[in-house]
Amino acid sequence: MSTTKPSPLDWKPASAPGAVTLRGHYVTLEPLQASLHAAELWQAVAGRDEVWQWLFDGPYARQEALRAAIEEKQAARSAIFLAIVPQGQGAQGYASLMRADPTNGVVEVGNILLSPALQRTTAATEAMYLMARHAFDFLGYRRYEWKCNAENLPSRRAAERLGFSFEGIFRQHMVVKGASRDTAWFSMLDREWPARKKAFEAWLDPGNFDSEGRQRMPLTRGSLAEECG
């Protein structure tokens, strides 16, 4: 039996996520606040109950109920919620850094609400880039996780497009809204991040879009793999 000890990590514990504002070319992420964002989010998602299908909460029948839910998220200590505000618009969604384990360097991006107007946009992609960059480059995490209902195929495709690696299915992992949920797990590691970051920044460069905002080079799992060698 080998008695070789594993080499010690050249790493120190990460910082806990906190309220922060992250600015990009196309979007700003800012601490979610009911007083600032509830009315804008209600306008963005009212009558579009499908946006809540895979989330732990919602849908909401009244703006007051959504505002109360946002107030709870604003006060939560287990997750840091950020409003997603595309340039020149009001809040169109939110996302959170959650289940942070600074000692082991693990954090998850989750609770992602995207209004129909925000879905499949450059702003939505940049929001995910800004959160990943913050987790790796500023907070010092080693592992960045994405989890979703295994039946949520758009989320699984998004995770792979954004450069996360599929790790498997946790069967009967949760009960959500009275239904059993199998959870698909994805991750991105700190050693993978430099190449992922390079691919993101090449895609987000304004020169990658024509005068009508259409991408010249797609951001796909294949292009990310090429960047990563």
Strand order of the largest sheet: 1-2-3-4-5-6-8-7
The residue-averaged pLDDT reads 93
Low-confidence segments, ≥5 residues, pLDDT <50? 222-229
How many domains in all?
1
Strand % is 25-35%
Largest β sheet strand count, sense and barrel closure: 8 strands, mixed
Helix and strand sequence: EEHHEEEHEHEEHH
**Main structural class:** alpha+beta
**Fraction of residues in H or I helices:** 25-40%
CATH topology: Aminopeptidase
CATH architecture: 3-Layer(aba) Sandwich
CATH superfamily assignment? Answer: Gcn5-related N-acetyltransferase (GNAT)
The DSSP helix count reads 6
- What does the overall shape look like? globular
CATH class: Alpha Beta
Q: What is the number of beta strands?
A: 8
Q: What Rg do the Cα atoms give?
A: 18 Å
Euclidean distance between termini CA atoms: 35 Å
Keywords:
229 residues, alpha+beta, Aminopeptidase, 31% helix
Blueprint of the fold:
Layout: E1 22-23, E2 27-31, H1 34-45, H2 63-75, E3 79-86, E4 93-101, E5 106-114, H3 122-138, E6 143-149, H4 153-161, E7 165-176, E8 179-189, H5 193-204, H6 221-228
Parallel strand pairs: 5-6
Antiparallel strand pairs: 1-2, 2-3, 3-4, 4-5, 6-8, 7-8
Helix pairs in contact: 1-2, 3-5, 5-6
